[in-house]
DNA sequence: AGCAACCCATACGGTATCGTATGGAGTCTG
DNA sequence: CAGACTCCATACGATACCGTATGGGTTGCT
């Protein structure tokens, strides 16, 4: 049967996945309807079947980002009793990892966009609140007070985001030792 | 004398100032030739007199940003002997200030753009190296070792950048106490 | 087979923006 | 005053993108 392998029909989820891929590669500027369609090897006609317009896609991408980020932080900070400190260091390592640069580009894109769009700002705020709450809980289990747990949580995320946006290539330092020192400073054993 | 107050002719510097204003308000996306001309109450014809093309403007903006950021960090970290710790806390306060959000939008824009443009990446790297060197020098004067001085410098900038990109509004915390705790953690007295 | 629902291609009008071409008003200079 | 130089307006072609209109091919169901 020479069924010429018709490509599987796309659904909304596939379009959203493609949108994330474009944002990761080219930034939010590259997220154009026709460019996305080309990447998925179809035409605009298909896009406007699945989405009302470009804003509809944006909203879907934003919603997907929200859900995936909240699910991810809950997973990363889910610690067995007695393993809270290890979970914190694990979270720092994962989020500050060099391989996470695409994710950081998406983060930064959303946060810049949030400056101009209230709905996006609300989602970013929600994600940040959840992340802070997750690590704050771990710090509190470790016996820290309210303020110090909150402060360490804020420092943790500010560090991982900020570090990912820096270009330290020209600054002479022992990167491993520096990251190690910072990790201990944020989550003390 | 009814000299009808002809507007002063623009020069390159005025265009670059306008470009920064647009980037701060609308992000890099808003930095279009015609929009910028409209803001300066002239037409494109003027723009293409002062600049070869859009990339020429971008390059000029990038160069101006580089120079101003390097001059600024040198000014902020210029400490009288014995005042190094105060200078560090001053730097943290200035860069992490809420009123600095426009500057942060520009920072983030350049750093995202740097992901796609090697020249921009080189400038960001240069600025970061200078900033790290400036604070690193202060930490070393305070008697810290090489690695710890480098680590505290990295943590300092990662924190101020990262914190500016977070939306902590929904996270219940004593913001002042948290910032105070973090400041002490980065630059210990 | 017939019909409906799903998925997509094509063609079109409309807008925004880039860069160029060209001319003109004002100013400076010999 | 004549010409050169500076700075800007206007008009134009070209491109990229949005969203719509419309039709066609597939699949599943009856």
Describe the fold and architecture.
Chain A has 189 residues and is mainly α. Chain A has two domains: 9-51, Homeodomain-like (Arc Repressor Mutant, subunit A, Orthogonal Bundle), CATH 1.10.10.60; 70-186. The first copy, chain A, contains nine helices and no strands. Chain A has helices at 12-26, 33-39, 44-50, 54-76, 84-95, 101-114, 118-141, 146-164, 175-186. In chain A, helix 6 (101-114) packs across helix 7. The longest helix of chain A has 24 residues, at 118-141. The model of chain A has no long low-confidence stretch (mean pLDDT 93). Chains A and B meet through helix 6, helix 7, helix 8 and helix 9 of A and helix 6, helix 7, helix 8 and helix 9 of B. The structure holds a DNA duplex (30 and 30 nucleotides).
Secondary structure category of chain A? mainly alpha
Order of helices and strands of chain A: HHHHHHHHH
Ends distance of chain A? 64 Å
Strand content of chain A: under 5%
Number of strands of chain A: 0
Identify the most extensive interface between protein chains.
A-B, 48 and 48 residues
Q: Which quaternary structure do these chains form?
A: homodimer
Tally of separate domains of chain A = 2
Calculate Rg of chain A over CA atoms: 20 Å
Mean residue pLDDT of chain A = 93
- Name the shape of chain A in a single word: elongated
Q: What does the largest sheet of chain A look like? A: none
Helix content of chain A: over 70%
- Are there runs of chain A of 5+ residues with pLDDT below 50, and where? none
How many helical stretches of chain A? 9
